[in-house]
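Running this now, will post back.
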Amino acid sequence: MNTFAVKGNLIHAPVFGEIETQIGSLLEVDRDGNISSVISSDDPELIAREKYYRGKRNLFELSDNEFLLPGLIDTHVHAPQWPQLGKALHLPLHDWLQEYTFPLEARYADVGFANQVYSSLVETLIANGTTTALYFGTIHIEATKRLADICLNLGQRALIGKVVMDNPEQCPEYYRDRSTSVGLNETYELIDHISSASGNASKRVLPVLTPRFIPSCTDEMLSGLGKIASETGCHIQTHCSESDWQHRYVIERHGCHDAQSLDSFGLLQPNTVLAHANFINDDDMALISSKSSAVAHCPLSNFYFSNAVLPVRKLIDSAIDLGLGTDISGGFNPSIFNACAMAVTSSRALEEGVDAALPAHERGRRNMRIDFKEAFWMATTGGGRALDLKIGMLRPKYAMDAIVVDTSIEESNLKIWKDLDSSDDVLQKIIHNVHRTNITKVWVQGNQIK
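Update: finished.
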């Protein structure tokens, strides 16, 4: 890869609650696809470095209407549910799984079907600015391998898991691992496939241990995955205390909450990402924090399937790393910018309450709201921290995972008024009004993939 630079306006969120905007800066990228320096507009070196890259024809010059942002990080995606986006949202979680989701996921025994769906999904997420995705696959090893290959071919950074689910009491006969040993052996097989895949020397695609959630797995399966985690150091992803039903199920089966149960099986690690976590309590938060595990906040699907709002600010105060997830297809929008907007909206609903029959001071929980800056941090820096990867910021030694948002696209709801909108206003408008057509360039590890 040749070195190159991008000259223009940069926006990122290195600190929770703070936005850093650099006007007319020069961002340099090295041969490995990492950011080597960011030269500000008042630096005496700027003119010489800009001239150097222009002479090499390796300079991307952005207009005043374009903004360079870190690539968006989706920390919870169900890849096989892409055809289901926008469907069956009227059902409670348990019925949604049994009547719609499991029958759909069972179809991925057909690798041709998997190839069609997964290609469409990855292309769509890239178009929406998602440079990194943490994917749940299905129980099917060949289809999940195909997802990894597609991410490699299309250039997206991805963490991919073969879902394991072997509990006959909760999983239908037509859709579960043939046995515990098969589920564990195929997990090893996926790890080997991704680790040795052609074009993956940089480990842009990583394997993930993926117990769907405690109800779907026997204790033997959970113990086996804990052993694999200890042996390999792989990332781990699962659902945690998502809904009333799931939360009660684990209490009745194991006599404790999800976080405590997962920890007892060795599945609460620094590279563990827990999806949802709406019903965790103070003790759970302390445990998750002590293990340096992270939470994937999925605000849109929480409204539909959890009937709860995650207290984001309380988790941040508990020193828990937080990313954002679309939760396709429990969430019906593939854009992480939309997840940012929903995170802000849901936090306000939690703080202010929604029952007009109650006095205003009795409706909600105080000090729960977040704003667009904090949501954008979760979508970028927070996601990188949750995955324990050097992504999410426009800083030296971080991967050049970035997007260009063009605010001048006519066929768009995004309109910037230069005499009215500050740099913070620009970002807030991007979050709430951006369309995939506004995202004109996407880089992952220095490779332009859109």
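DSSP finds 15 helices and 17 strands in the chain. More later if anyone needs it.
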